[in-house]
Amino acid sequence: MFGLLTLILARNPDHVVPALAVLLAPLIAVHPFVVADKADLRTLYAVLPVPHRTVVLGSYAWAVAGFLGTVGAGAGLAALLARAEGVPLHGSDLVTLLGLSWVLFAVNIGVQFPLLIRFGYARISVLGTVLPLALVMVAVVRLHLSFPTLQHWLPLLCAAGPVVLAASAILAARLPGPRA
């Protein structure tokens, strides 16, 4: 919420959608893990005829749907903000920031979900949030990445998102659930 208020006060509608995608979509994505831990749903999953793989893939589908919903809502909010402020949306900057948000989201979920599936939300919540962001920050610093450099690599980075999620889903589907 703080990030959204900062962006609105900064009056830059180009940054609303990516900020929502990076800040809000991962929170939406992990919500089923929070609920599963609170309600001890692993007991229910054990007695239902639903394979572990289906539950895992459903979590990934929920995450992607949450990202797309957040981007859609954010695009509407950005358009309203731009109209209210009388400033244009810059398409190329918005597309670049959305692509980078997608990659950051995919890396975040790709690292976080296998940890959440294996250990549960209660045991891994802080590490599962900090580790993906730390990996991205180290990559940006070590590779000396800048906005123009990232624009050049944007198609490859965007294509890497589904690859990261698929590899993570394959790994997570093979992991056992959290132990009591």
Quick overview of this protein structure:
Pfam families: ABC2_membrane_5. This protein is mostly helical and 180 residues long.
Please give a structural write-up.
- This protein has eight helices and no strands.
- It is globular and about 55 Å long.
- The protein has helices at residues 2-10, 16-23, 25-38, 41-47, 52-85, 91-119, 121-142, 147-174.
- It has one domain (2-174).
- It is mainly alpha-helical and 180 residues long.
- The mean pLDDT is 79.
Task: Itemize the secondary structure elements and their pairings.
Elements: H1 2-10, H2 16-23, H3 25-38, H4 41-47, H5 52-85, H6 91-119, H7 121-142, H8 147-174
Helix pairs in contact: 1-2, 2-5, 2-6, 3-5, 3-6, 5-6, 5-8, 6-7, 6-8
Keywords: Membrane, Transmembrane, Transmembrane helix
Pfam families: ABC2_membrane_5
Transmembrane segments: 60-82, 94-115, 121-141, 153-173
Mean pLDDT: 79
Binned strand content: under 5%
Helix and strand element order: HHHHHHHH
**What's the number of structural domains?**
1
> For the terminal residues, how far apart are their CA atoms?
34 Å
Given the C-alpha coordinates, what overall shape results?
A: globular
What's the count of strands? 0
Count the DSSP helices.
8
Q: Work out the helicity level.
A: over 70%
Uncertain spans, ≥5 residues at pLDDT below 50? none
Largest sheet: none
Kindly provide the radius of gyration, computed on alpha-carbon positions and rounded to a whole number of angstroms.
18 Å
Give the class from helix and strand content and strand pairing: mainly alpha
Keywords: Membrane, Transmembrane, Transmembrane helix
Transmembrane segments: 60-82, 94-115, 121-141, 153-173
InterPro entries: ABC2_memb-like
